[in-house]
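Fill in residues.
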């Protein structure tokens, strides 16, 4: 989706000597890339449908309506990561942890929906009807994202990939019916998006029923639940700040240039950030091994994976930047031809920021230092916001692209610096010679 592209039986954990997923990193990376190869054209078709049938102003309204839910689902949807962190403990009872996570999702999501509706009352761009349609999708979003996080911690990457594929695929089907066939406009687009997430949540619950059935009474305020929600909310704050950092220029563009500029720039943003799928696939494959392996091997794996993610993203960015001036107006229409320049300006920062999704696995989940990840996101947000306020009034969508790209570069430098300090590595990802000689 245009605003969701960005970093985790009575289930028995493998024996202590066996690290979940360690032998399947290559296969899991390949399968994830294969699924992303399926979802990317689906996402592209979604953008094409929105662009052709909603036009720039309608697409801008759709992006802002969905964004409000996406922000809150990112905040609350890290409950699965909280469960994964607890999986490091011996004799852990997975079902009880999943029960707590789902119970917290049920308790917190209605509060988030009220926030969405309250925000709609003070803004004129979305309106209460669109906000209500979007808010109804918050709980399903949180549920399937929570279960997805647990699946990563158990190295069940194939099912995780299926769950990730469903929202864009079902949204496309819904939009073809409600927007293209029935001509329901922006409301039909938001409704299709919400129904897609509802069906995805139903599938995820059915496919993981061995993780949460049978149900049992439990407290969502005991020590285990508090530990889950504490880590989840900090990691969720990282996601929200990240998302706001990625999108803050949209609001500044709206203020200075109008909804049409938001629609045009969102095309550039979608195309640029879709290249993070490569590094995200690597992060998906290494999550379980990094959580369960020794510290030294986990740090080494993260360093290697980050380097690969950077190189592969750069390999994709170069041809995309060269082809954009021809392909953007051809695919999306002449009204979006202005997206090619900000896309080119976004690429350096997008490439540099790609490994951050891998580094965050180590910082937030392995080392339980989500505040470091939060600091990375805050730095990127501050830099992007400050530069956007300076550049957007003068240069429009191009200024937004420059501001965002520099923000990504600043965040990437902070993330790598945090990893170097915490893992005791050099800036090239290696162990210092003196430390290596003492081993």
């Amino acid at each position: 989706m245009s605003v969701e592209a960005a970093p985790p039986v009575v289930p028995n954990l493998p024996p202590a000597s066996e690290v979940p997923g360690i032998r399947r990193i290559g296969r899991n990376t390949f399968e994830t890339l294969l699924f992303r190869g399926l979802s990317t054209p689906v996402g592209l078709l979604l953008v094409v449908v929105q662009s052709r049938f909603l036009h720039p102003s309608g697409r801008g309204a759709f992006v802002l309506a969905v964004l409000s839910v996406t922000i809150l689902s990112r905040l609350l949807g890290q409950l699965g990561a909280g469960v994964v962190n607890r999986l490091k403990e011996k004799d852990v009872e997975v079902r009880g942890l999943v029960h707590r996570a789902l119970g917290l999702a049920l308790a917190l999501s209605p509060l988030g929906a009220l926030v969405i509706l309250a925000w709609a009352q003070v803004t004129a761009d979305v309106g209460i009807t669109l906000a209500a349609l979007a808010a109804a999708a918050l709980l399903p979003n949180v549920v399937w994202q929570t279960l997805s996080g647990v699946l990563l911690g158990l190295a069940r990457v194939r099912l995780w990939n299926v769950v990730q594929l469903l929202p864009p695929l079902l949204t496309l089907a819904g939009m073809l019916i409600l927007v293209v066939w029935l001509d329901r406009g922006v409301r039909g687009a938001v409704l299709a998006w919400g129904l897609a997430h509802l069906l995805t949540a139903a599938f995820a619950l059915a496919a993981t029923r061995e993780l949460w059935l049978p149900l049992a009474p439990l407290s969502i305020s005991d020590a285990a639940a508090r530990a889950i929600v504490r880590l989840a909310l900090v990691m969720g704050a990282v996601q929200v700040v990240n998302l706001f950092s990625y999108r803050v220029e949209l609001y500044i563009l709206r203020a200075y240039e109008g909804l049409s500029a938001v629609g045009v720039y969102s095309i550039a943003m979608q195309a640029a950030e879709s290249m993070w799928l490569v590094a995200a696939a690597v992060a998906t494959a290494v999550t379980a091994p990094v959580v369960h392996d020794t510290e030294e091997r986990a740090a080494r794996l993260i360093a290697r994976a980050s380097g690969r993610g950077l190189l592969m993203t750069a390999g994709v960015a170069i041809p995309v930047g060269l082809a954009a001036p021809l392909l953007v107006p051809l695919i999306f229409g002449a009204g979006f031809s202005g997206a090619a320049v900000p896309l080119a300006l976004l690429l350096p920062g997008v490439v540099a920021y790609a490994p951050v999704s891998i580094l965050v696995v180590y910082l937030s989940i392995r080392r339980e230092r989500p505040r470091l990840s939060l600091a990375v996101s805050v730095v990127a947000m501050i830099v992007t916001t400050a530069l956007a306020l300076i550049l957007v009034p003068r240069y429009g969508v191009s200024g937004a692209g420059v501001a965002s790209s520099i923000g990504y570069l600043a965040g990437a430098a902070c993330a790598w610096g945090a990893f170097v300090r915490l893992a005791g590595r050099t800036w090239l990802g290696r162990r210092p010679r003196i430390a290596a000689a003492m081993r």
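The chain has one domain: 22-438.
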